[in-house]
Input
Amino acid sequence: MEATTTGQDSARTQRVGAPRQAGGAPQRVLAVDVGNTSTHLGIFEEDRLLGTFEHTTPARITPDEARLCVREALGMLALDVPGDAIISCVVPALADAWCRALVAECPGRTLVVGPGLKTGVRMRYDDPAEVGSDRVADVVAARETYGAPVVAVDLGTTTNFEVVDAEGAFAGGIIAPGVALGAASLARAAARLPTVELRAPAQAIGKNTRTAIQSGVVLGEAARIDGLIDLVFAELGQEAPVVVTGNFADTMSALLRHDVTVDGTLTLRGLDRLWLANRR
Output
């Protein structure tokens, strides 16, 4: 578990709890991003990030356990319970427990990112409802922070590309297995191949099985990301800023030949922007 303090198009949204009170001190919101591998919490005051907390996503969680996670985060950050909450959850089995926990813990409203949420971004996707909530948050934050066009690459359980075109619309994206998923699949499918540490070897041509796998998995992932960036630029008809986030952002960004910006709080900031756009 890790806590960090920092200075930093229409409407079927799930809203639960009391309505927002007008006036008074700036309201704080708890943003929760439940991913397949990690769960991140961020506390915001309007558009200012006060602190973050991270823990491993469990296979199962009860509402009480999720509430304890919130309280642990707030305790480590020395912050009071925020009034409102917003959640992105890409693990369906955990969504209900987290929503119940946030409704019970936060006295205001709880927003759940899903179809119909006001994003302010035109979605050029065949079925916008198919776009995962974390992907929506990445698009909103990337466009808000870096302008348009922009490419956001989220390196987690999956490797996701989100592409915002020159008009500021979500043009679409790319979804591929993430680097850890690729390594785990290789070890499961090939009985004689071991699980290796996910770090770059000294050279591409491996001199033993361990470094050969590291080259294929880690350097291969970097080459794939670089190649996909080139394909995206070609289809956009221009180059664009590339922002990299997710658990493997630091590891992979150092291996890319493209210039990229590492932004570890991109998804949480996107959730905050979505809350600001949908609050009353």
User: Anything to note?
Assistant: The chain has a mean pLDDT of 90. The chain is about 35% helix and 25% strand.
